[in-house]
Specification:
four-stranded antiparallel beta sheet; 5 helices; 25% strand; Alpha-Beta Plaits
C-alpha cells in the first residue's frame, strides 16, 4: 500500500464547486481506498491505495465528475512527492509565516518559450523541479496571482497549498 495526499483543484473556494468533506471521505472509501481522512475544507484528503498515483487520479477524477457533474482537477502525491516539495522550497528560509508561503503544482508543463511566472516578482517566486514556489509577505491577496498567470501563459491550471497545509498533509499521509 502507498499513502497519497489527494489534492482537489478549486473546490470550496469563494463558494465555488462545493464538495463536502464528509462526501469526499465517503466517495474515496466507496472507491476502496483505506485510511481515508480529509484535512481542512479545501479539497485535501489522505488515503492508502494499492495502485499507482495516475490510477488514483483517474478513478477519483471520474467519480467526482459523475457525482458533481463537473470536472475537478485531482493530484495524487506520495509522501516522497510532498517531502520533495517541502525540501525543495527555495524561499523557506526567508519566510516567517507558513500561511503566506505557497507551493503550486501545475497540471502540465509550460509550452516551449512560454514566459515564466518569476517575471511577476523575481525575489519572491521561484520555479524549480516543475513546481512554483511563492512567498507572499504582504498576504496572498496582495501578491501577484501566479495561478492566473500560469493559466494564461502556459494554458494549464494549477493547484496550490500553503506551507502550513503542506506540513499537515505530510503529518497525516499514511505510511
Amino acid at each position: 500500500m502507498t499513502g497519497y495526499a489527494v489534492l482537489l483543484r478549486g473546490v470550496n473556494v469563494g463558494g465555488n464547486r462545493k464538495v463536502a468533506m464528509t462526501e469526499l471521505r465517503d466517495l474515496l472509501g466507496d472507491l476502496g481506498y483505506t485510511q481515508v481522512r480529509t484535512l481542512l475544507q479545501s479539497g485535501n484528503a489522505v488515503l492508502a491505495a494499492d495502485e499507482p498515483a495516475a490510477t488514483v487520479v483517474e478513478r477519483v477524477g471520474t467519480a467526482l465528475a459523475e457525482r458533481y457533474g463537473t470536472e475537478i482537477g485531482v493530484l495524487a502525491l506520495s509522501r516522497a512527492d510532498l517531502q520533495a516539495a517541502a525540501d525543495g522550497h527555495p524561499l523557506r528560509d526567508i519566510a516567517d509565516n507558513g500561511s503566506r508561503m505557497l507551493v503550486l503544482w501545475p497540471f502540465g508543463a509550460p509550452p516551449p518559450g512560454a514566459p515564466s511566472p518569476v517575471e511577476l516578482d523575481p525575489e519572491r517566486i521561484v520555479v524549480r523541479d516543475g513546481l512554483i514556489y511563492q512567498w507572499c509577505p504582504d498576504g496572498i491577496s496582495n501578491a501577484p496571482d501566479v495561478a492566473a498567470f500560469v493559466r494564461k501563459a502556459w494554458k494549464v491550471p494549477t493547484t496550490g497549498r500553503n506551507w502550513n497545509t503542506l506540513e499537515k498533509l505530510l503529518a497525516a499521509i499514511p505510511d
